[in-house]
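Much of what follows relies on a compact textual record of a protein's fold. Think of the row as the fold of the chain written in a discrete alphabet. An example makes this concrete, so a full record is given next.


***
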Amino acid sequence: MRSRLAERHARMRNLGYPPPPVLPMDLEHRVSQQFASNIEHASQAATQLAGPIARASGEIVESLLQGGKALSCGNGGSASLAQHFMAKMIHRFDRERPGLPVVALSSSSSTLTSVADDLDCEHIFSTQIAALGHPGDILLAISATGKSANVLRAVEAARERQMSIIALNGGEGGQLSDMLGERDCEIRVEGSSVPRIQEVQLLVLHCLCDLIDAQLLGS
């Protein structure tokens, strides 16, 4: 056992990792801590966000019934969440139903790199919204901090296209919170840990999927 640990530490040093702590880590305890932290943040968010989530689901359903669609956007982990929401809407969440029109603006690498090359990364979402968005459509803007410049541009573009705006936000809200109006819907997951915020945001998206299905198919 000691020789295996020594070999592992040597490989870590060769890869540029810092020396390991003198005391061995209790890996299973760290796993338990991660689960406990997740449960704590999700429980706190449940009481704070039930109202905004219900309101957002109603706005999405209303848009869909009027022939509209939802456009979702975000960066990094938020881009993954935007695409996950698209997949659950186009295919299914928990029950069989016809697909629903949702487009994740982070899903086309050709479009993203074309706009970023000719303009800059600030415009990768707003350019698509100008082309695809129509009055009555929904923008689902996802951010863990509310500070992403291209998401802020997306909100501005959506407002110009007379779209409804739902912000799945995090932390203290940043500039994204500041630019939202009374007609906009903000679902903000409070906290300082981006991993915990994004974990709860995934749960929020699943709640939206469930509520949308319930309103369209019955509970």
